[in-house]
Structure to design on (286 residues):
């Protein structure tokens, strides 16, 4: 959610560090941005202390209640109720900020709380546990920069993410299959250039039949449905917040002809791209 052009940057060698903590009251000052569909540019961690916040994340309406936390990933299209009464904290951070080790990178790609398979999980986290961590993180970022600040700030964030992960994925549950996560990551990286199941099976080094069995057993869907769902989601995102023409959008999504994209979109949504765009423009606020 780029509300001011960019989030604050804290620079240490060798990598830039990007993180910001905000009071949710700031959302009421930006209804022209946050009250309309817009694309998140960073990871966003929203925690509600009092009241409730209604939001639409990738076209799914949801409500975050008091003592609940929601994590939004970069690329998702968001719209918030900027008029309701609520208090809480928002933490914006980039993958670069969190990822300092291979273990960090592994967490970002395999954590249930950040899963591409089942996104938009809401987690119950009490104020006595999470609020002190947010305050400590905020105070640390306000200090004069030194060689310890990066590690300290990242560890406060890591504790919140790990606690949220523990609530989403208790130890008795079977963890997400890493091959399935790899498939979704591959789709995320390549869906604009290839919608063929065999292409992804080759990337993963398994047969198309084996990939289909794995995905269907875990999700109930075929790989083709998963790929098409991701393409349609991106089309909806672009139609809802961008000013790109249908022709421009179709080329971005890898269609050789706009008519092919229009037929594809209608097949999966029963709407033309233009009708979907108009329906989103009519949703001025939640």
């Amino acid at each position: 959610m780029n509300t001011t052009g960019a989030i604050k940057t804290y620079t240490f060698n060798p990598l830039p560090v990007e993180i910001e903590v905000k009071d949710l009251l700031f959302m009421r000052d930006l209804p022209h941005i946050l009250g309309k569909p817009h694309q998140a540019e960073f990871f966003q961690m929203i925690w509600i202390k009092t009241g409730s916040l209604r939001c639409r994340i990738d076209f799914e309406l949801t409500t975050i209640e008091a003592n609940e936390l929601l994590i939004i990933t970069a690329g998702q299209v968001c719209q918030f109720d900027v008029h309701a009464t609520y208090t809480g904290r928002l933490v914006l951070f980039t993958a670069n900020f969190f990822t300092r080790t291979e273990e960090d990178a592994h967490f970002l790609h395999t954590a249930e709380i950040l899963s591409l398979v089942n996104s938009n999980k809401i987690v119950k986290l009490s104020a006595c546990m999470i609020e002190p961590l947010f305050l400590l993180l905020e105070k640390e970022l306000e200090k004069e920069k030194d060689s310890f600040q990066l590690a300290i700030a990242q560890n406060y964030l890591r504790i919140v993410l790990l606690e949220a992960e523990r609530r989403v994925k208790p130890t008795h549950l079977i963890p997400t299959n890493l091959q399935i996560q790899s498939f979704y990551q591959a789709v995320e990286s390549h869906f604009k250039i290839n919608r063929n199941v065999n292409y992804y099976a080759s990337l993963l080094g398994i047969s198309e039949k084996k990939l289909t069995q794995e995905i269907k057993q875990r999700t109930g869907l075929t790989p083709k449905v998963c790929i098409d769902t991701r393409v349609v989601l991106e089309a909806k995102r672009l139609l809802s917040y961008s000013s790109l023409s249908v022709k421009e959008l179709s080329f971005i999504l890898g269609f050789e002809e706009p008519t092919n994209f229009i037929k594809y979109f209608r097949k999966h949504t029963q709407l033309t791209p233009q009708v979907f765009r108009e329906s989103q423009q009519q949703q001025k606020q939640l």
About this structure: The first strand starts at residue 9 and ends at 11. DSSP finds twelve helices and nine strands in the chain. Confidence is low (pLDDT under 50) at residues 1-17. The beta strands are 9-11, 16-23, 38-39, 43-57, 60-65, 68-72, 77-80, 86-93, 122-124.
